[in-house]
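Researcher: I'd like a structural prediction for the single chain below. Treat it as a standalone chain; there are no partners to consider.
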Amino acid sequence: MRVAKQGLPFILPSFALILVFLALGWWPLAALFLLLACAFTFFFRDPDRVPPPGEHLLVSPADGEVLAVEAVDSSPDLAGPANKITIFLSLLDVHLVRAPLAATVDRVDYHPGKFLPAYKPEAGARNESMTLVLKGGRADIVMKMIVGVAARRIKCFVKSGEAVARGQKVGLMCFGSRVELILPRAVTIKVGLHDKVKAGATVIGEVQP
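Model: Treating it as a single chain, here is the predicted structure.
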């Protein structure tokens, strides 16, 4: 199983402490850190994902459960009315975030904030987050990575002006979080409330080719 390199600072010290506690004969602590190391390895797993054929199909940016699909009257970064899809990531989900479509990163904005539970509606506006504005040839979208009560870190892998491919890894959130995706109304939504989605694999929207 491949592991995201961003998880190594959590995984390697845990294994090192296992060896130390084994050498000292402290078996309970060694067992505890073995469980912790396994948990970190599972959390930071990096499975292969192949987007379905069709550049007009938008793929999910994250693994998890669809918490909401709702209309919004306006967005500062999109012209006209839009739709918003909210995906909640539990501790059991892969936390790598992927680009829903081929696009250019127009802007990357970091927003300091609180660490409310990510499943709460107010977390989207009040929690610490990272927003990516993606300018695509087929559609412009806004993607917001939001950390929760246990998640305190957002890693962004891209910068302004960079081109990204559909399904490319663009970020990682640690330990429970959510992703909000704002799409133009021209994009046909293909997921519903409580659907389970996989980053880079599940089709969540379609733009007329």
